[in-house]
C-alpha cells in the first residue's frame, strides 16, 4: 500500500531526513526522546543514523518528540519498555522509504528484566539470582518483589 | 510459585482466613488431639534477623504438633551481605525440612525465596514488608474479642515502617471493618499501602490523635514508635508521648474496647492498662501458638497420618 510520508503529520516542519529502512517512533511525549534512545541502547557508537525531533507541534499531543532510526527494527521487549515512557507513541516500520507497518504501542501487563527497583531494601537489589519483575499499572509500575510503585522517573530505572 | 507458600496477607481471601481461624479454634479447644499429628515433621527456621518471639512461637507450634525444628541459628548482619545468596540458602534448607519459616531484612525476600523451594514457605517478616502469620493471630484475637465484621478498629503508632500494620490492614479489607489510622504525620501509612487499600475498596481515614475517635472504637491496635525514627531525643519524646495510652485515657472508651499490641511494648501502653478488661495483648501473644499450629497443620497436610 505505501503511505508516502514517513508517518508524520508534522514532517514538513521537521528538518529531519526520511529514512530508507528502519523505524520511526512518533508521538513520543515531549522530553522523552533521549530516554527512548537510551532504552534502545543507541548512543551513535555503532554508526546508526539517528534523527531526533524535539518539541515538535502535534495534533494529538501539544508537543511531541520524534525519533528516526535507520537500519533498525524494534523487538517486542524494546516496544514494551518504550510503552512505559512513551505510552502514546506510534511505531512506523519503514522499508524502501515506505511505511509498511504502523502501530500504537501497547502497554504490557508486566515487564521482566528491564527495570531495576529503586528501593535499596528490595531483595532484587541484593546479589541474588533474580530477574526484576514489574507489574504495569495505569500510572506507573510496581516491583513484583517489594511492591514499590514507581510513577515518575521510570526511565531512570531502566537497566543498561 | 506454589500456592501453599504464605508470603503476604494480600494473598489471603476471606475463606482462607476463616479456614485458618476455624482450625485454630478447634486446636485451641483441644490441643491434645493434635499432639502427634505431625510427628517426624521438621520445620526449618531461617531467621536472618533476631526475633525471639516469633521464632519461639513457631517452635512451640511445631513441637505441639509432634514435630521438631532445624534452625539455621543466629546470623550476624555482616555475613548476610557477604555470605551465600539467600536463593542458595533456602534451596539447601528445603532439602532438610518439610516446611520453612523465613525472616529476612530485605523486602520481597520471601517472594523470591518461594520461587526457589518446593516445600511450603512462611514469611515471618521481610524488612518493612509483610508478616502474615502475625496477621492471622491478630485476626484470631479480634474475632475472639470483638468479631471481624461490623468492626471499627483504630490502628495507632508507627504506621510507616510497621509491617504488622500493613499486613493487618490488607487482611481486614476482606471483612466489614472500618479502619482508622492514627499516627504522627511523619509516620503515616506508606502511599503504596494506601493505594492497595483503595484498590480493595477500603476507606482510609487518617488521624493525628486518638482522642476524637477512641469512643467509637471496638479495637485499638497499638504499635511502638521507635526512637530511631526521629532525629533527636526531644522530638521523639514529644511525639511518642502523644500516642501513649493509660487506664485514665481509656475512661473515654467503650467498656468493651479491646486493646491489642504485637509486643514487645516499651511504654506506649502503661502497665495500669494490664489490669483492665481492655487488655488483650498477652492473650494475643498466646494465640500465636494455636494459630501457627493451624497454619502448619494446613501447610504440611495429612502426609503423616
Ligand atoms: Zn523492589
TrEMBL record, chain B:
Organism: Saliphagus infecundisoli
Function: Catalyzes the condensation of carbamoyl phosphate and aspartate to form carbamoyl aspartate and inorganic phosphate, the committed step in the de novo pyrimidine nucleotide biosynthesis pathway.
Aspartate/ornithine carbamoyltransferase Asp/Orn-binding domain span: 150-298
Key words, A-Z: Pyrimidine biosynthesis, Transferase
Residue ranges of coiled coil: none
Binding site for carbamoyl phosphate: 53-54, 103, 131, 134, 263-264
Protein name: Aspartate carbamoyltransferase
Enzyme Commission number: 2.1.3.2
GO BP terms: 'de novo' UMP biosynthetic process
GO molecular function list: aspartate carbamoyltransferase activity
Family affiliation: Belongs to the aspartate/ornithine carbamoyltransferase superfamily. ATCase family.
Subunit description: Heterooligomer of catalytic and regulatory chains.
Enzyme class: transferase
Residue span, Aspartate/ornithine carbamoyltransferase carbamoyl-P binding domain: 5-144
NCBIfam families the UniProt entry points to: asp_carb_tr, PRK00856.1
Entries under PROSITE patterns matching the protein: CARBAMOYLTRANSFERASE (PS00097)
Leader sequence residues: none
Catalytic reaction(s) noted: carbamoyl phosphate + L-aspartate = N-carbamoyl-L-aspartate + phosphate + H(+)
UniProt cross-references to InterPro entries, sorted A to Z: Asp/Orn_carbamoyltranf_P-bd, Asp/Orn_carbamoylTrfase, Asp/Orn_carbamoylTrfase_sf, Asp_carbamoyltransf, Asp_carbamoyltransf_Asp/Orn-bd
Binding site for L-aspartate: 82, 163, 224
Pfam family, one: OTCace
Amino acid at each position: 500500500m505505501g503511505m508516502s510520508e514517513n508517518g508524520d503529520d508534522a514532517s514538513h516542519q521537521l528538518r529531519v531526513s526520511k529514512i530508507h529502512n528502519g523505524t520511526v517512533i512518533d508521538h513520543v511525549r515531549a522530553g522523552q526522546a533521549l530516554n527512548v534512545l537510551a532504552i534502545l541502547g543507541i548512543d551513535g557508537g555503532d554508526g546508526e543514523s539517528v534523527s531526533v525531533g524535539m518539541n515538535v507541534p502535534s495534533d494529538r499531543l501539544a508537543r511531541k518528540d520524534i525519533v528516526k532510526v535507520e537500519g533498525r527494527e524494534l523487538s517486542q521487549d524494546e516496544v514494551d519498555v518504550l510503552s512505559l515512557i512513551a505510552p502514546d507513541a506510534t511505531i512506523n516500520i519503514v522499508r524502501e522509504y515506505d511505511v509498511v507497518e504502523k502501530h500504537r504501542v501497547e502497554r504490557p501487563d508486566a515487564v521482566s528484566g528491564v527495570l531495576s527497583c529503586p528501593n535499596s531494601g528490595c531483595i532484587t537489589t541484593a546479589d541474588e539470582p533474580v530477574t526484576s519483575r514489574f507489574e504495569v499499572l495505569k500510572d506507573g509500575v510496581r516491583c513484583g518483589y517489594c511492591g514499590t510503585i514507581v510513577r515518575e522517573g521510570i526511565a531512570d530505572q531502566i537497566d543498561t | 510459585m506454589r500456592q501453599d507458600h504464605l508470603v503476604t496477607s494480600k494473598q489471603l481471601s476471606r475463606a482462607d482466613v476463616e479456614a485458618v481461624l476455624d482450625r485454630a479454634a478447634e486446636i485451641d479447644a483441644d490441643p491434645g488431639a493434635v499432639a502427634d499429628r505431625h510427628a517426624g515433621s521438621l520445620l526449618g527456621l531461617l531467621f536472618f534477623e533476631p526475633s525471639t518471639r516469633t521464632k519461639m512461637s513457631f517452635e512451640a507450634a511445631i513441637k505441639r504438633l509432634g514435630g521438631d525444628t532445624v534452625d539455621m541459628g543466629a546470623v550476624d548482619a555482616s555475613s548476610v551481605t557477604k555470605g551465600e545468596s539467600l536463593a542458595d540458602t533456602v534451596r539447601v534448607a528445603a532439602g532438610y525440612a518439610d516446611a520453612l519459616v523465613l525472616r529476612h531484612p530485605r523486602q520481597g525476600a520471601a517472594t523470591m525465596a518461594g520461587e526457589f523451594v518446593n516445600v511450603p514457605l512462611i514469611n515471618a517478616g521481610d524488612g518493612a514488608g509483610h508478616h502474615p502469620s502475625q496477621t492471622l493471630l491478630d485476626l484470631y484475637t479480634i474475632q475472639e474479642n470483638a468479631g471481624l465484621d461490623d468492626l471499627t478498629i483504630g490502628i495507632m503508632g508507627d504506621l510507616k515502617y510497621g509491617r504488622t500494620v500493613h499486613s493487618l490492614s490488607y487482611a481486614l479489607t476482606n471483612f466489614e471493618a472500618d479502619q482508622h489510622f492514627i499516627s504522627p504525620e511523619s509516620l503515616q501509612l506508606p502511599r503504596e499501602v494506601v493505594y492497595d487499600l483503595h484498590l480493595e475498596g477500603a476507606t482510609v481515614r487518617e488521624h493525628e490523635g486518638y482522642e476524637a475517635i477512641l469512643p467509637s472504637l471496638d479495637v485499638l491496635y497499638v504499635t511502638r514508635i521507635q526512637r530511631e525514627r526521629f532525629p533527636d531525643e526531644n522530638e521523639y519524646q514529644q511525639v511518642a508521648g502523644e500516642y501513649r495510652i493509660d487506664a485514665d485515657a481509656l475512661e473515654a472508651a467503650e467498656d468493651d474496647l479491646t486493646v491489642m499490641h504485637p509486643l514487645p511494648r516499651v511504654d506506649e501502653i502503661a502497665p495500669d492498662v494490664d489490669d483492665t478488661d481492655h487488655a488483650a495483648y498477652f492473650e494475643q501473644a498466646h494465640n500465636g501458638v494455636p494459630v501457627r499450629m493451624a497454619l502448619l497443620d494446613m501447610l504440611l497436610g495429612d502426609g503423616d497420618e
